[in-house]
């Protein structure tokens, strides 16, 4: 069963990865940036929470609407294809043949395929959807579930780098703890993310760590610069 | 040429949409949230710039590494497929047949297709990559270009809601201008985004506006709550 090597991560895991990788990075970098400019952790917490709320809604709702749009798009194309195989069947058969012409099959074989496929309209349309248009049927309720998963993952990811600021009143001091805890989490998250997506795990973990550190360092430097 | 209706937006436009839709939303909501908690625009500007820097790096670099990972994945699967058609050609022919069995073609025709396709190894592998694994060949330099486009779009999107805070010292006052200018931009952006992706334009514009307004209102309420 060598097929299993090709196995891809599930959509839910993909959504967790999307939400958490931004959640761990952006609020962390924002908090780091603000720590370079304001002394009180209170303001960092306020800004951080505002960012987490904004980011999770933007990503979650964005994900929801993107999922809905995808489903609408699929259904309207599906209707069009059913319509077209009734209205211009020869045109659609030609499209089937073109798919196989691209793969170097002989015209005789192209014709046979098109004629046989035309016998079952559902399968014919399914073929056109997938191989002419490259569209997969979206799962039902996918949009809502995706929105929730991405949003919640963003919140969980974002709370981690912010948590030291709840307990340490001086923002510069809190930043040290935030860096330590976030770096560890970015590495662990990057490790599992790479495992799940079939990438080299340590290299992937270092990449994720690098993005987080770079974003935080740049935000810190920029905030210092603005505040003189 | 009814094909043209199916035309999808280019990758560059997709990247601009990704960067700008988050750029317009998250910094806007963060600024709105902070305006509910601190009176001075200076802190809002510092936080906003830190967020824009962090967000553009996270998204841009994230996009770059995702593109690189996709290319690596494609190349390793490509190598595997070439290897497999040499090592276990009958196995791979069976996989070609399975693809067509799913579309209801007769076993005789499946055999003919598999035999004919096996004559040209490049096209055979190309078929397996696209139709068995669902992988498209990534464009060269796509990753770098994608990173830059997403990152720059995020910065441009983020500067718009922040701009009033540069000129108006009182954050609550600046928020009014920020809301006005951002709402207009969200609507216009949503309108063009929908046009480009072939969705109903006004409905799409209202959706984008809604996400931005909801994120900002929630961030504002949350920041008030924490500081109140």
Structure commentary:
The structure is a homodimer of 228-residue chains. With 228 residues, chain A is mainly α. The first copy, chain A, is built from eight helices and no strands. Chain A has helices at residues 11-35, 41-87, 89-101, 107-117, 121-132, 142-167, 171-196, 201-226. In chain A, helix 2 crosses helix 5 (121-132) and helix 7 (171-196) packs antiparallel against helix 8. The radius of gyration of chain A is 25 Å and the shape is elongated. Chains A and B meet through helix 1, helix 2, helix 4, helix 5 and helix 8 of A and helix 1, helix 2, helix 4, helix 5 and helix 8 of B.
Question: Layout of helices and strands, plus pairs?
Answer:
2 copies of one chain form a homodimer.
Chain A (H helix, E strand, L loop, with lengths): L10 H25 L5 H47 L1 H13 L5 H11 L3 H12 L9 H26 L3 H26 L4 H26 L2
Helix pairs in contact in A: 1-2, 1-6, 1-7, 1-8, 2-3, 2-5, 2-6, 3-4, 6-7, 7-8
Shape of chain A: elongated
| Tally of alpha and pi helices of chain A | 8
Rg measurement of chain A, Å: 25 Å
* Largest interface (C-beta under 8 Å): A-B, 79 and 78 residues
Query: Can you summarize the main beta sheet of chain A?
Result: none
Unreliable residue runs of chain A = 1-9
Tell me, rounded to a whole number, the average pLDDT of chain A: 86
Topology order of chain A in helix (H) and strand (E) letters: HHHHHHHH
Q: What proportion strand of chain A?
A: under 5%
The proportion of residues forming helix of chain A, as a percent range, comes to over 70%
Q: What class, by secondary structure content of chain A?
A: mainly alpha
- Looking at how many chains there are and whether they match, the oligomeric state comes to homodimer
Count of strand segments of chain A: 0
